[in-house]
Design brief:
The chain is mainly α and 131 residues long. Helix content is 79%, strand content 0%. The chain is elongated and about 60 Å long.
């Protein structure tokens, strides 16, 4: 069996880093939504917090699935890594603009992931059929 190229292993590690980060932030939003005190804006705020937790939880699950399937190759897995890279970039930029500059680290992580996932070594790995 051929060995996974270094850029592909790096993308896998980055995807595995996204899992606990997205999961933790989703959990924090869900806990915040569950502990919102009722009042004039209690229910809408609770709904918005749960709505914010949902895409982060989906991102965590998607990242885990793609990271686990990287060894098998396939263009669908590569496309999933590219989509996740764009989602991480978007979330990092939005978080940096809306909350704090520290969120821009996520945008950098997503940009590096996207760069590596679209490189020639990665493209060759995912185009090669596996036995």
């Amino acid at each position: 069996m051929t060995r996974i190229p270094t850029p592909v292993r790096t993308v896998r590690v980055m995807l595995l880093l996204v899992v606990p980060i997205s999961g933790t932030v989703a959990l924090r939003f869900a806990v915040a939504g569950a502990t919102v005190e009722s009042g004039a804006f209690g229910e809408p705020a609770m709904g918005l917090l749960f709505l914010a937790a949902l895409p982060l939880a989906v991102l965590a699950v998607m990242s885990l699935v793609v990271a686990l399937k990287i060894a098998n190759g396939g263009n669908g897995v590569r496309a999933g890594a590219i989509v996740i890279g764009w989602l991480v970039i978007t979330a990092g930029v939005v978080g940096a603009l809306a909350h704090h500059r520290a969120w821009s680290a996520g945008a950098v992580l997503g940009a590096v992931m996207l760069f590596l996932a679209t490189g020639p070594d990665t493209r060759d790995w995912f185009d090669t059929p596996r036995l």
